[in-house]
Amino acid sequence: MLWACVLLPHLALDTVLRRHPFPDQPLALVTGPAQRRVLSAVNAAAAARGLHRGQAIAAAQALCGDLQAVDDDPARRERARDFLAAWAYRYSSQVSTEVPGALLLEVQGSLGLFGPWPAFEARLREDLSALGFRHRIALAPNAAAAAVLAGCHDGLAVTTPEVLRGALSQVPVARARLPGGAAPALERMAIRTLGQVLALPRASLGQRFGAGVLAHLDRLLGQAHETLALYQPPDFFDAKVELNYDVESSQALLFPLRRLTADLAAYLAGRDGGVSRFVLRLGHEGRDDTEVAVGLLAPERAPATLFELARGRLERVAVPAPVRTLRLLARELPPFVPASRELFEARPQQSVDWPALRERLRARLGNDAVYGLAPVADHRPEHCFKRVQGVAEPAPPSGFDPPRPTWLLARPIPLRGPAPRVLSGPERIETGWWDGGDVQRDYYVVETAQGQRAWAFCAPGETGAYMLHGWFA
Amino acid sequence: MGALVSLDTLLADRRLWRGQPTARAASTEPSGHAALDAALPGGGWPEAALVEVLLPADGLGELRLVLPTLARHTQAGREVALVAPPYVPHPRAWLAAGVAFERVHLVAADARQALWATEQCLRAGCLSAVLCWPPQADDRALRRLQVAAESGQSLAFAFRDARAAANASPAALRLQVEREQLRVLKCRGGLAPPAPVPFPSPLH
Questions:
Q1: Are residues A269 and A197 in the same domain?
Q2: In this predicted model, what pLDDT tens digit does every residue of B78-111 receive, in sequence order?
Q3: Considering only CB atoms, which chain B residues are within 8 Å of A398?
Q4: In CATH, which superfamily holds the domain spanning B30-88+96-164+171-189?
């Protein structure tokens, strides 16, 4: 087994910055009780102004007047970690979030698909940079060693136990993730590196520091079995962006919306699925959320398509109050089957396939705007068709076909003008007494003075007052 | 026009262009009406272009004109769309004309959005034919449709009132439907035939 460790040293800060419209302005995360608020993380702009971790918020604000202080929310960090685990699940079926602030992936099984390791690593780094997370990556034959090496040396790849022992020997004790207070105690004994620890007699080391340290050292060297709780992907997607200011126009929501739909697309690619319906929930201060449902006829997962559709729906919504939070919920995640195309298909430039075009039209014109008609076995013209959404079935052939007009009027209107010439008829349609839509009509094909071919009817047995019901166009 | 100008001088300083008949490639879009195909240059609809059909009244055969084309396209597995049709198409009648009706898509749009929807449908390139009924389309809107049809490589039919016949139009082909006959007002790639094309209605 080969384990890759993706260490996220600035997870809490990156989670905030990646969704922030102005990440270049001084920003700090604040933690601690209300009486003593201290900075837990600062971004580059804030660090340049002399702010640092552990500083009291009052001192920080004195140094930097336009500092944005964001509450360091552990739940937000959890969500980001779960999101990243879902992303990593795309590359490996064994993903663990057991080590705080890090992701562990078993990559031996994935190398055949994404390998070799340098290409795979570049791919991981590219994805993480696009998602906006700073990271360090290391590879080792076991998960514990990968986590330790990632903390010391970014980009280190160790594949054999012999090399691993050498690499671990140079790791400072403070970074070896030793349990309990072992690391400071060892440093006080002038033992600086893991190599020196490993050289100590095992029995006395166990006596002094307990079995936990021995077990950890065994795991690092691959001499003991590791048990890791593996990540299980959830069956829904739920992400939320807290806006630190009131947003009154839908234009300003597009930036967080793009992030949310990109996250959704990353999540969908990870589980190789699509989304058929999702809900955007706009949270307001002191009133109910506004819900914007985005329904699709066929599952989709391309980030650009999802963003464009969500944007189309969002722009049609009248937002009743300033928006404080934006949340994206997707529960209907059916399997996604990409449309098959010909290999050498000559398609015009900037072409869109029909499902994408259909969604674009529906987003702007309304959910019911694009439809097909299917014939229904009913003699009444009003009931001879039904609307169908999505993919229609081919119509079954009908036995007997009397002449029917190609155009039907939505409802019959009186046929005006001089008396038309009757070309054929009457054809009696008398049915529907069982469902209340009783119809008794004599239909004629008539030609008007202008030469139009019309389908018109009279009451049974009468002629003269024609009602126009269709055109033989 | 006092002075006599010899033809040779006009030709020499390139103020006069002499059209030379060249063999045109046959159109891959026959209309399905033999008399109309014979009258059109190329023997069919212009490819990837806008066809404008002018109607003095509904029910004169405007669908009979395009149904063979739609039948050919849908049976070949290609999709077609009707953007904001004025009436409801009767599925049985269209099926009887040979149209694979499950490939006909209807787009409901109000007058303002219909042009946008038509342009999107044409530009997308996934629909092989798009029928539209632009209510008050000006020269600019029709030009947009013509360009969209070219870029999406699809065939566009715009049905308009015959009163628009007097206005200029960027459409590649303009047809006026009259009683039992068709009049070609303009066709790209050739002179419009002066005589109307017979277009008899079927007997009932």
A1: no
A2: 899 999 999 999 988 898 888 998 899 999 998 8
A3: 92, 95
A4: P-loop containing nucleotide triphosphate hydrolases (3.40.50.300)
Alpha helices in A132-236 (DSSP H): 143-152, 161-169, 182-188, 194-199, 202-209, 211-220
Q: Average pLDDT in the A84-94 region? A: 88
Residues A211, A257, single domain; the answer is no
Q: Is some CB atom of chain B closer than 8 A to the CB atom of A385?
A: yes
> Domain span at residue A212?
3-25+66-220
The pLDDT tens digits of the residues spanning B111-167 come to 888 998 999 899 888 899 999 998 777 888 899 899 999 888 899 999 999 888 888
Is the pLDDT at B51 greater than 90? The verdict is yes
> Could B125 and A350 be called an inter-chain contact, meaning their C-beta atoms sit closer than 8 Å?
yes
Residues A245, A216: one domain? no
Structure tokens at B192: 């419009």
pTM beyond 0.90 = no
Closest CA to A470 of A401, A415, A423: A415
Q: What is the ipTM of this complex?
A: 0.83
DSSP chain B: --S---HHHHHHTT-S------PPPPPS---S-HHHHHHSTTSSPPTTSEEEEEESSTTSSHHHHHHHHHHHHHHTT-EEEEES-SSEE-HHHHHHTT--GGGEEEE---HHHHHHHHHHHHHHSSEEEEEE--TT--HHHHHHHHHHHHHHT-EEEEEEEGGGGGS----SEEEEEETTEEEEEEETTSPPPSSPEE-PPPP-
Say what the pLDDT of residue A222 is: 84
Residue A453, chain B, CB below 8 Å: the answer is yes
More confident residue, A36 or B24: A36
Nearest CB to B58 within list A371, A385, A471: A471
Whole-number Å distance between alpha carbons of B130 and B132: 7
| Mean pLDDT of chain A, nearest integer | 85
Q: Domain end: A287, A308, A332, which one?
A: A332
Is residue A193 domain-shared with residue A108, that is, in the same domain? yes
Q: What is the tally of structural domains in chain A? A: 3
A162 sits in the region (left: phi over 0; alpha: psi -120 to 50; else beta) called: alpha
CB-based contact B126 A353, cutoff 8 Å = yes
Assess whether A207 and A304 both reside in one domain.
no
- Of the partner residues A347, A366, A454, the one whose CB lies closest to the CB of residue B125: A347
CATH of the domain at A272: 3.30.1490.100
